[in-house]
Amino acid sequence: MWVLNKPSLARSKQDIDVLIAHCNNLDAVVDKPLLEQLYNDYDNGGGEVTTAQLAATDGKKDVIRGQYSKTSGKDPNTGLDKTLVYLRNELLDPDFAETCPYCSINKPNQLDHYMDKSTYGQLATCRLNLVPLCGHCNWLKSDKPYKDFMHPYYPKVRSRVVFLKADCTIVHGRVCVSFSIDGTALGNVALEVRLTRQISEIRLDKRLQKAVNEFLTHELLRSHVRTNAGLRRTLAEMQTITGRQYGDNDWRTAVIRGLRNCAAFDMTVVNNYRNNPIVVNNGAVL
């Protein structure tokens, strides 16, 4: 679970000028201040707005929603229109989001409306509401309430709180992991429920089993550890490294934490990975 750097509110408001300049049904005098206020409310609300805050722009909901197609270079009314393609390009730039913030497995290749554009059309082209996701996570989220997910720009988690747990067991010489949320660490029941639903909705346990074993194969093949005592020291070092590289609530770091608490993860398991490495689809040994 990754947190992305939030796009600036000022840059988001500049997008309003572009939107209005290329849409005959939006007025700079009337609509611009209303949309700016809506964006302010969204930002102040931590990535959410109320029905009351949407009311002032409700009459333009369908108009703005119709402009979203321009982010892909296609306008159903006029054909090719690259007016808003820059939005997609900037948010899908690897320097902005290298990995999908929900699964941390795949590269983002689609934009998700955190608050869906069908209901909240006024936010259809607001970059604060557009989140780069991989196609799989976007598909799994598509028909779910946004409140079942944490907004990657507005995480609502206290700094340095470690909330992602990975309970590890050994089955046939391989690591099996079950992910969950540490509600005690969060100290926020509503957020615990939201994150638990997110894990369920994106099917994190099932999707990560292969990724976990590929990750462990890669790490263990390059490790020279030979004893159980050495393995425990290595796991402690790996936790520090993965925490710095990916964050404390990334699945990799959580798995290492879980393995440190799994007595059954010993050199017998390590040697099984070394002797029977995972082979990925392209035939490469990891």
Architecture blueprint of SSEs:
Blueprint: H1 9-21, H2 31-44, H3 51-54, H4 61-67, E1 74-75, E2 79-80, H5 85-91, E3 110-113, E4 130-133, H6 135-141, E5 164-171, E6 174-181, H7 183-186, H8 189-201, H9 204-221, H10 228-246, H11 251-260, H12 267-275
Helix pairs in contact: 1-2, 10-11
What does this molecule look like?
This protein has helices at 9-21, 31-44, 51-54, 61-67, 85-91, 135-141, 183-186, 189-201, 204-221, 228-246, 251-260, 267-275; strands at residues 74-75, 79-80, 110-113, 130-133, 164-171, 174-181. It folds into 2 domains: 9-148, no CATH class; 164-275, no CATH class. Strands 1-2 form a two-stranded antiparallel sheet. A hairpin with a 2-residue loop joins strand 5 (164-171) and strand 6. The radius of gyration is 22 Å and the shape is elongated. The longest helix is centred in the C-terminal third of the chain and has 19 residues, at 228-246. It is 44% helix and 10% strand. The chain is mostly helical and 286 residues long.
